[in-house]
Structures are given as C-alpha cells and as structure tokens.
Amino acid sequence: MFSFDNSYARLPQTFHRPARPAAARAPGLIRFNHALAAELGLDVEGASDVRLAQVLSGQVMPVGAEPLAQAYAGHQFGHFNPQLGDGRALLLGEVIDRDGRRRDIQLKGSGPTAFSRNGDGMAALGPVLREYIVSEAFAALGVPATRALAAVSTGEQVVRETMLPGAVFTRIAASHIRVGTFQFFAAQGDEEAVQTLADYVIDRHYPHARGAENPYLAMLTLIAERQARLIARWLSIGFIHGVMNTDNMAISGETIDFGPCAFLDEYDPRKVFSSIDQRGRYAYANQPGIGQWNIARLAECLLPLLDADEEMALEAANGVLKDFGDVFQAEWLALFTAKLGLTGEGPDDRQLVSDFLELMHQGEADFTLTFRSLSKVAGGAAVETLTDLFAVPQPGLADWLIRWRGRIGNDRTPSERQAAMEAVNPALIPRNHRIEEAIAAAVYNDFSFFHRLVDALANPYVEDPETADLSVPPKPDERVTRTFCGT
Ligand code: AMP
Ligand code: MG
Question: Fewer CB within 10 A of the terminal residue: the chain, N end or C end?
C-alpha cells in the first residue's frame, strides 16, 4: 500500500522510540481521502474499506512501516516542558509523493507510547473529525497545513469528561519536526544532536540553505520567513490556532495540531476560543507576536551553530527576529490589500485596511462575509449588501467607502475587480458551529453532515446555492463560545 522510505527512523535512537498501536475492537472507515492518496502515490487499488480501516487504525502493519514515536519538548503557554513527545501518535513511515516531496504518514489516537505520561494515547471522535474538516478546508483555501488522509472509528470508548467514541486520524505532513524537537536536544545540552537535526532539516526542507555561507543561519531565516507568511495567512482567513506552543509549530511552515482552533465569526482582534487560554496569550491578533517568540526559542537552540562567537551568534539571531517582523508586515499588507481589491501600493493602504478592520470590530461585523460582500459591492452590488452585516451601524463606513472607491480607481472593470476579490475572500470557512454540529451527529453514528461539510469546503471561493446555508454565521443559540483540546 505504501512505498516507505523512512529517513527519520535512521536518525539516532535518541530521536524516537519504537511504538505499537493499541488494539481496536471494531475499526470502521469513516472517510478516506482518495485524491490525497493518489497525490501520495499510494497503492489502494482494490483495497476494501475494511482493509483500509484495519491499516489506518494500526491493526494491520503495512509492509515497510517502522512505527515510532518522536521525541520533542516545548514551551506550553510560556512554560518549558523538557519532555513531551508523541504521546498519542506514531509515525508509520515516510513516502515520496508524486511531486518528489517526502511526506510523513502519522496515526494519531493510536494508543499509548513511551511519551504518553498520564495520557491514554487515544483520540476521541470529535477532535479527529475537527482536524479532518479543518485541515482539508485549509488545503482548499490554499493555506499550508498538514492534511487528512483518513478518519477511522475504533469501536473503543475513550474516557474524557464522559465516555466518547474513539477514533484514529491519519495525518500527512511535510514532516512532524517542531520547534520543540530542537528544544528537546538543546535543553539536554546535546549540541551534536541539535546539529544532526539541523542537517536533517536542511536536507529535507531547506536544501537551498546548504549553499549559503552559514547554512544554519540560512535555515533559521527560511523557517522564520515561512512561519511569518503562514501566520499572515491565518489572519487573512480569520483563523485562531488556539495553542501555539512551541511543540505545535512545525518547522516546515505547515499549520499543525488543530486542537482548540476556531474561526472568527464577528471580527474581534482579541478573540480567544480555547478554554485553556485563560489569559488570551493566543488571541487572534497576538499570533504574529507569539510566532516571533517561538522563533526566538528556536534561535536559542541554534546559537552555537550560528557563530562560534556568542555575541555574533546573538546578533545573527536578532537579525532573524527582525526579519520575521518585516516579512510578516509585508505579507499581511499584501494579503489584506488584495482582500480590499487594491492593486499596486499606495501610501495610505495600511491605514485603509486598519480603519476597515476597526469599523468591522466596532460594528461586530462577520469577518468572512464582510470581505465577501465588499467584493460584491466592488462589482456593483448595493452598498446595503455590506452595511447590513454591521450589527452596530457604523456612520464612519460611508466615509471609508468613499476613500476606498477613490483608492481602487478604475484600472479594472467592476466585474474583474469582484472576481479578483472573490478569489481571495472565501465565501465558506469551517464555521465553529457547523463543526460542532457535524461532531454532535457523528457521535450518534450519523456522518452525513460531516461528509457534506467536508465536500462543501473543497470549494470555499465559489458560492453554491446548495451549500449557502453553511456560510451563514451562527444564530445566538448556535454560537460556540469555547473550544477544547479534547485530548
Ligand atoms: P497538544 O497540546 O494536543 O499538542 O499535546 C501536547 C502533548 O500532550 C503532546 O506531547 C501530546 O502527545 C500529549 N498528549 C495529548 N493528548 C494525549 C493523550 N490522550 N494521551 C497521551 N498523550 C497525549
Ligand atoms: Mg501538539
């Protein structure tokens, strides 16, 4: 089924521990991503659902798999934990996809490992479905993220606050190496392992860094820049990761670990959903600052590799952190000006964007629909299409629209501008209340809404009357106010 080539397993023993999946009484395939399987070059021709469920719940080990749990550490809400690691996941192995890229195949929720601490190694159905929905939505939105190959129910019950059905998620990632993987070795003072990991990361993710004067500094710079761009993309779709601990930041630049993540309905830069984020550390607008903080933790691990001279190493690291800020600012501006339909660069663009966001904030306007409606207004729709979305009417909006119209000019026809704006302003995002609805039905074995939601989210930029109900913000009684890790 898989043509494995397991490079991580060939790294020194301190990097991983062997892992064995737990028994599952009655594995059942919930969903299998055939398009992704084809992209990965998997041979699933003729494989029955029963067979897929057995393999993707870990009941049958595919030929060539070398299941292992990866070691890592991490700062969780600012506090360092030297020993985390895959506590409820195992890496089956790696494949080379159709485009020659190396991809990890990981089972999540497959039972305890050497790193489980007090956890049971299991995943409940809800978080598995959430991760499936959101990762595939990200793919369709064009935002880098790990992917969903499959969701399988195990037939086992997992104990959380109540008993819940268990499930296993098959995650595909460019790799599962995190900032916390570097921290794991750096915290032990194992400079040799840090260097081994850095060399591995360069070969796997940043081969161009190899030719630089200082390959490690080049690698750090590239990691920082990719992360800065990624976080700008999150902000542009109203996404709140929810748990940006250093162990949940992939060095590949993919979004990873969709735990208590959520999307904004009405725009509020201080918005937090996660029940465990009591101080708002990971609030919507804090994400770029936290990303930079996490990169600083990575830079600390790499200091000995950046320069033999400590002062010089620190200076190089600070340069990377500044670069992170610059890249983020530039990317954010490019994304948000595109959302407003602006072309070229104007001196007041940043102000124009900020003022619009402030009006949305004061007006409690839905983030996604507001930008989508502005696209329609650009195409000639009545201004009420936009103003009706402001729960608290904003007198300043009329003025803003005059400035905006002045700035967009007439270098494109209205319908061209609308099309360009609609291509970057999705109509459909995975709304929190819809995810909850899919999970609530699935717990009673009804997966129809889950499938409908995943199917619809494959086309987020196209308005389809069949799926229009999924774009609607929550009614007051449907609002999701808190999200949970669900681990
Ligand atoms: P997370 O906050 O979900 O990224 O997880 C943080 C750490 O807790 C990681 O080391 C996980 O492997 C571990 N963990 C989370 N849930 C479980 C679980 N149910 N059993 C064992 N370990 C877990
Ligand atoms: Mg994690």
Answer: C
Residue of the nearest CA to atom 23 in ligand 1?
A: 87
Task: Say yes or no: CB of residue 119 within 6 Å of ligand 1.
Answer: yes
Percent of the chain whose predicted confidence (pLDDT) is above 90? 98
CA 119–ligand 1 middle distance (angstroms): 7
Pick the atom of ligand 1 nearest to 113's CA.
21
Select which of 86, 104, 120, 247 is catalytic: 247
Q: What is the mean pLDDT of the chain?
A: 97
Instruction: Give per-residue pLDDT as tens, 315-359.
Output: 999 999 999 999 999 999 999 999 999 999 999 999 999 999 999
Domain boundary among 161, 176, 191: 176
Is the C-beta atom of 84 inside 6 A of ligand 1?
A: yes
> 85: Cβ below 6 Å to ligand 1?
yes
Where among 268, 302, 332 does a domain terminate?
332
Residue span of the structural domain in which 287 resides: 180-332
Q: Is 127 in the pocket of ligand 1 (CB under 6 A)?
A: no
Residue 59 lies in a domain: yes
Q: Which residues, 6+ apart, have CB-to-CB distance to 76 below 8 Å?
A: 84, 245, 247
